[in-house]
Amino acid sequence: MSDVLNTEERRELPDSDYGLPERREYPMPDAAHVRAAEAYFRYCPEDLRPKLARAILAKAQQYGVDIKSPTILSYAGE
Predict the structure, then answer these.
(1) In this structure, are residues 27 and 11 in contact, taking their beta carbons and an 8 Å threshold?
(2) Of 10, 59, 61, 69, whose CB count within 10 A is highest?
(3) What are the beta bridge partners of residue 20?
C-alpha cells in the first residue's frame, strides 16, 4: 500500500481502519498512515479529538509506532 490512498483503496478499508469510523476519516491501515494521522491530528474537530487520540494510540501500538505527541497523549488520557 502506498502512502497515498486512492478513492477505491479508501472504500475497501474496513471501518476499523479509520480513526473516526463514523466519518470514515483518518485512515490508518499501516504505520505510515498512523504517522500521517498523528501529523493531521490538529485538524480534527475539538469534540472528536479524544476519540481520535485513543484510536491513534491503539493503531500505533498495533504497528509498532512510537507516538510522542504530548497533545495526542493528553487527549487520550495518557
Answers:
(1) no
(2) 59
(3) 25
Alpha carbons 48 and 38: distance in angstroms, whole number: 14
Spatial CB neighbours of 12, under 8 Å, sequence gap ≥ 6: none
Beta strands in the chain (DSSP E): 18-20, 25-27
Q: Strands 25-27 and 18-20: what pairing?
A: antiparallel
The model's pTM: 0.92
- pLDDT per residue over 9-59, tens digit each? 999 999 999 999 999 999 999 999 999 999 999 999 999 999 999 999 999
The C-alpha cell that represents 30 in the structure block: 499501516
Query: Of 38, 39, 35, 40, which is closest to residue 76 (Cα–Cα)?
Result: 38
Say whether 3 sits in a helix, a strand or coil.
coil
